[in-house]
């Protein structure tokens, strides 16, 4: 892994993704005590950063592999990302989704041309359904977060941040499956100047935090968090990157996530999903640590089910 690999990745996906805007807010700066830069991946194509990794992963396949299609399992955002990327690149996409996935996300997958297979809301059920499609159709499985080409695509978020603001001292990323924070850590390492990568994670699904403590991939017994995009666990490809390059992970409570999301809606005037608010919640929870620092916060997506969203 080197700078050139990341430069090549960014050049490869550039025609297919947005260089999303970076918002600031004097009021949120005052509340946090830090200078904050919000990277708005909620304005990315399909509404989340995952478009970057999906496009890069498909573009790295052979022509024969692309003709047979791609398959993934996802609670929503990567399902949409792979469906849209595949549609743009004229590749069949087969999407395994848990039966409790937000309605807005499953409807979007259908709109982007993805072929949905529903399964029980467990990792085992997802993997079994995806494996069956691979066996039957010869499609290539692309993991939403534990795939190096996906991680490299995700790294372009941090690259754009550091290109715009080379003086960043910290980049804070939400942590779910680990694909975004691993990519962010790579970009911070190769393009930042003493720039730390820090994770924000819901306390009720704190497997990444525990994994950092124990040195092995931990699992969650429950997945009841409002941050539905962060219910998955780390993988054997992204975890070593996280171990090596991520400084630490901050866990936040459900009410802290909701309050942070409410502030982002009210003060930045933008729609972000709960998973996006986790990184901001981590900063608000640890004001002393972030005080007087130049801190970027990745707002990972904006695909909200308005029928179920809660602000209290």
Automatic annotation (TrEMBL):
Keyword Cell division applies: no
InterPro entries for the chain: TrpB-like_PALP, TrpB-like_PALP_sf
Residue ranges of every copy of the Tryptophan synthase beta chain-like PALP domain listed in the record: 14-301
Biological processes annotated in GO: D-serine biosynthetic process
Keyword terms of this UniProt record: Lyase, Pyridoxal phosphate
Recorded GO MF terms: ATP binding; L-serine ammonia-lyase activity; magnesium ion binding; pyridoxal phosphate binding; serine racemase activity; threonine racemase activity
CDD domains named among the record's database cross-references: Thr-dehyd
Cofactor(s) for this UniProt protein: pyridoxal 5'-phosphate
Family assignment from sequence similarity: Belongs to the serine/threonine dehydratase family.
PANTHER family: SERINE / THREONINE RACEMASE FAMILY MEMBER, SERINE RACEMASE
Name this polypeptide is given: Threonine dehydratase
């Amino acid at each position: 892994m080197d700078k050139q690999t990341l430069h090549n990745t960014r050049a490869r996906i550039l025609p297919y993704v947005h260089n999303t805007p970076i918002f600031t807010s004097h009021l949120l700066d005052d509340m946090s005590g830090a200078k904050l830069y919000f990277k708005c991946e909620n304005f990315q194509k399909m509404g989340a950063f995952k478009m970057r990794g999906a496009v890069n992963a498909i573009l790295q396949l052979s022509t024969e592999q692309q003709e047979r299609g791609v398959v993934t399992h996802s609670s929503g955002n990567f399902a949409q990302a792979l469906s849209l990327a595949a549609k743009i690149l004229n590749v069949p996409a087969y999407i395994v989704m848990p039966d409790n996935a937000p309605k807005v996300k499953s409807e979007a997958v259908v709109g982007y041309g993805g072929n949905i297979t529903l399964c029980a809301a467990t990792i085992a059920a997802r993997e079994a359904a995806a494996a069956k499609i691979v066996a039957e159709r010869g499609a290539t499985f692309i993991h939403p977060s534990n795939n190096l080409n996906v991680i490299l695509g995700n790294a372009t978020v941090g690259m754009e941040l550091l290109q715009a603001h080379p003086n960043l001292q910290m980049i804070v990323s939400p942590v779910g499956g680990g694909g975004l924070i691993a990519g962010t850590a790579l970009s911070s390492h190769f393009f930042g100047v003493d720039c730390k990568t820090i994770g924000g994670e819901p306390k009720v699904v704190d497997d990444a935090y525990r994994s950092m403590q124990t040195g092995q991939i931990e699992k969650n017994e429950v997945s009841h968090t409002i941050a539905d995009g962060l219910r998955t666990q780390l993988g054997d490809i992204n975890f070593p990157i996280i171990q090596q390059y991520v400084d630490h992970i901050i866990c936040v409570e459900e009410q802290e996530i909701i309050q942070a999301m409410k502030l982002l809606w009210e003060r930045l005037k933008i729609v972000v999903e709960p998973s996006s608010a986790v990184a901001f919640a981590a900063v608000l929870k640890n004001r002393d640590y972030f005080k007087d620092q130049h801190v970027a916060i990745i707002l990972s997506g904006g695909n909200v089910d308005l029928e179920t969203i809660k602000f209290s």
